[in-house]
Specification:
Elements lengths: L1 H22 L5 H7 L6 H10 L3 H8 L8 H35 L4 E3 L1 H9 L10 E4 L5 H10 L3 E2 L3 H5 L7 E4 L6 E5 L13 H6 L2 E5 L2 E5 L2 H14 L5 H10 L8 H10 L3 H15 L8 H5 L2 H15 L8 H12 L2 H12 L17 H21 L1
Parallel strand pairs: 2-5
Antiparallel strand pairs: 1-2, 3-4, 4-5, 6-7
Helix pairs in contact: 1-3, 4-5, 10-11, 10-12, 10-13, 11-13, 13-15, 16-17
């Protein structure tokens, strides 16, 4: 039994080394060929790659592998790529349709993550794993946006009555019946994991256009996208290697963000420590290079060093465990920096109800105070069960 456990551990350590190699900016085909020996458990590697959001990057590197993987593995990867291509084409086509429709209504929209981020980071809208299209609109436009989506045949998860009652979900989710299309809208009120309120007009003022399949798509500036990915990674405790790979790609020499603006944008929303952690993970895990003048900024915070080490250890662990509720709370506090600001950040998140805290059928009627009071108890039950499992 101990021998079997040791083999499993060794395989998972090899899996992690392969995924890190693929996520780095300059993977080495010879290194991968050595790591992927005949005894390698390919099915476990592919399963872990999918869980970490790395299947696209892994599939790309397998093309250059010599000798190539076994026939059934190649066919399995090709089948995944075929499905991913079809899914990507479907989502990008719908994205273009929605952008045109919203432009005709005079509603400004920005695209984040999804195909735009995949193009920015990896040069191809189908290289990065994603299952939806993320759009940003102003909060004042969300009711009109919801009505427009309903008119286009989408079913909203957040009813119009809740919007009229000024309740804010985690995101505004729309599904199209009988189709694998998921659209999520975000506003300044749903970006609750930013330590300070997001000034959404600044996002629109700094917007740029990214070319996706020959069409210009309105998107966040590179600097705003970088901060958003760092906040998103911190929101989810950096549980996927994909987000670290995104950060490493966005700060690669080929992109060269305006670093003064990056720091200014982070300061604007109180996310300096969140940015430091994202940069530290990209550097420590994937070897991403930073300009020399930014090394003091990255390494000036001892708490970030400890957090990066904990996250890296958990990601690479052959036997990963769920994060307990107390660990989650401590992480939130440390992400803000300082005991009092950290505690205020934690309690704001604890008392900011989302759609999961609303009573079904009474979203627009139940007082927000009751939703806020019930939220900590729901989170305690949810994460206690996960920790037990």
């Amino acid at each position: 039994m101990a021998h079997t456990s040791s083999i499993t551990r060794n395989n998972r350590e090899k899996e992690w080394a392969v995924l890190v190699e693929c996520a780095s900016g300059q993977p080495s085909a010879p290194h991968l060929s050595v790591r992927l020996q005949d005894s390698f458990d390919w099915r476990e590697l592919l399963a872990r790659a999918e869980q970490q959001g790395m299947l696209g990057l892994l599939a790309e590197q397998l093309k250059n592998l010599n000798p190539p993987p076994r026939t059934e593995i190649r066919e399995g990867v090709r089948e995944w790529q075929r499905r991913q291509t079809v899914h990507t084409l479907s989502l990008t086509a719908e994205m273009f349709r929605l952008l045109e429709h919203f432009a005709s209504l005079g509603i400004e929209v920005l695209v984040t993550k999804g195909p735009v981020l995949s193009v920015r980071c990896y040069g191809d809208p189908g290289m990065r794993q994603y299952g939806d299209i993320d759009l940003i609109v102003r909060d004042k436009d969300i009711q009109r946006s919801t009505e427009a989506m309903i008119a286009l045949g989408y079913t909203p998860k957040v009813p119009v009555t809740a919007i009229q009652a000024k309740k804010s979900p985690g995101e505004y989710v729309f599904r199209k019946p009988n189709a694998h299309v998921l659209i999520e809208f975000h506003t300044e009120r749903t970006f609750r994991y930013h330590p300070r309120p997001l000034q959404i007009e600044n996002l629109f003022q700094r917007r740029v256009f990214v070319t996706v399949d020959g069409r210009d798509v309105p998107a966040l500036s590179l600097e705003d996208e970088l901060i958003l990915i760092c906040v998103h990674g911190a929101k989810h405790f950096w549980e996927r290697l994909m987000w670290i790979a995104d950060v490493a790609a966005l700060i690669s020499p080929g992109h060269a963000p305006d670093w003064d603006r990056v720091v200014a944008v982070a300061r604007e929303v109180g996310a300096e420590r969140i940015l430091r952690l994202g940069l530290r993970l990209a550097s420590d895990v994937l070897g991403a290079d930073l300009p020399v003048h930014l090394e003091p900024f990255k390494r000036s915070d001892g708490a970030v060093s400890r957090l990066a080490a904990q996250i890296t250890s958990r990601l690479a662990s052959p036997e990963p465990r769920d994060i307990g509720i107390l660990q989650r709370a401590a992480f939130r506090v440390r992400m803000r920096g300082g005991l009092l600001p950290g505690a205020a950040y934690l309690f704001r998140l604890l008392l900011s109800p989302t759609e999961e805290d609303w009573t079904a059928g009474k979203e627009g009627n139940r007082p927000a105070l009751l939703d806020a009071i019930s939220r900590p108890f729901r989170l305690a039950r949810k994460h206690s069960r996960r920790s037990d499992n």
